Amino acid sequence: MTEAHHQFGRVTSIRATSVGRPGSRRFRLLIEARTGASAVVWLEKEQLFNLALALKNLIAQAEESQSGKEQPDAQEEAHGATPASRERLDFPAGRLAVGYDPNAALFILTASDAQEANSALPLISLTATQQDMDTLAEEAFEVCAAGRPLCPLCGAPTNPGEKHVCPKHNGHAPLGDTQES
Predict the structure, then answer these.
(1) How confident is the model at residue 13 (pLDDT cuts 50, 70, 90)?
(2) Do 60 and 71 reside in the same domain of the chain?
(3) Other C-beta atoms within 10 Å of 105: how many?
């Protein structure tokens, strides 16, 4: 397992959620470890989306490298957990990293605190099963897609009830208005 200030070990739950109204949402990972520790890791929408992409790619690579090999039983091992604690962390994510431990058949996620950019070690490190990470990736994609509707012409987010000035109309006409030349 990767070194970190807080070793969460195996998680019992890792979820992607958002808080707020579309257009002003905040994104987060809610993490609960077997040790009793928990964390709320705040992310930008792009970070959450890219985390989901990275997880999907890593899962595909792990499946490809493990095809035909007998899978180790990773269901009951605490894998790298420090002694039980009731830590409660809440921080904005800086650097995120994912990896795979083929010996334990577990995925590794580390997150650094954005406010401690000079720290060489991530703030937390955790492990999870392929099923947990695949579920997280799917949930992250759903959370990211549940935002404001996109303009069909330019792809920019639109705010319900507000006129959208579309660059594809050269900024001269709000979407839905027609102008004759």
Answers:
(1) very high
(2) yes
(3) 20
Domain that holds residue 167: 149-181
Is the pLDDT reported for residue 78 higher than 60?
A: no
Between CA 147 and CA 141, with CA 28 as vertex, the angle to 5 degrees is: 45
Structure-token pair, residue 90 = 């809440």
Relative orientation angle of helices 45-66 and 130-145, to the nearest 10 degrees:
150
Q: How far apart are CA 128 and CA 149, in angstroms?
A: 33
The answer to whether 7 and 125 have CB atoms below 8 angstroms apart is yes
- For residues 170 and 181, give the distance between their C-alpha atoms in angstroms, rounded to a whole number: 13
- Say yes or no: 132 and 174 in one domain: no
* 100-155 tens-digit pLDDT: 999 999 999 999 999 987 778 999 999 999 999 999 999 999 999 888 888 888 88
Helical (H) or strand (E) element with 53? helix 45-66
